[in-house]
């Protein structure tokens, strides 16, 4: 059995919609023993690309023989997957990095556990107006992600490209915008929800440069010829992984995490994203 539900990226509305249609506890099937004849259903919330694609590959090719059946819930925002895992609407989610999860757990009190890294989506700097970083003019408008973890990550890619300097681990758009030492070009730094950044980039001509999360690059089908700089995948601490409620790593979830680190999944990632926008982390 394979199900798929796409949710609107509307923060509380999306969270309420998912919560309303789910149970308040983990699906009973997720705690069942694994039997290919009666597969245990695991409901997983995931970003559409590449996470849901990877999960659907597993569901179609590996899950049945392993005794699990994935119910893949596509979620376009970065809030709903954790609120829905917390309220029991999901058994697990697959969308986040360790730094993001640590921040969420600290700020919201979540008690979650997670597996090892599965893949990395390199943060990438795009521009339709400039061919290389040194061409970026003083006062150019740069759009970044507005969540603190990925915003700093994006600014560090700009730093590696020579557009910002001497960033600290607690820097943000607000601390850097008017700092002449850290922002010598006087770049106009703006931010928006991660899923909105590629939309503004493609539709708003006032955006000169945009720093975009890898999954949204693939989803928006952006032009790779417009890449100015890209985060390195080597020894990258920003791998995405499977997350579940602490103390609730059921046999089905454990098996899913095992399949996510299989040779078949590694090969699928390499063959599907040949442009390097998604790379295996194992």
Automatic annotation (TrEMBL):
GO CC field: membrane
Entry-linked InterPro entries: Lipoprotein_NlpA
Recorded superkingdom: Bacteria
Cleaved signal peptide residues: 1-26
UniProt xrefs under Pfam families: Lipoprotein_9
UniProt KW keywords: Lipoprotein, Membrane, Palmitate, Signal
Membrane topology, record value: Lipid-anchor
Protein family: Belongs to the NlpA lipoprotein family.
Name of the featured protein: Lipoprotein
Organism: Glutamicibacter uratoxydans (Arthrobacter uratoxydans)
Upper classification of the organism: Bacteria, Bacillati, Actinomycetota, Actinomycetes, Micrococcales
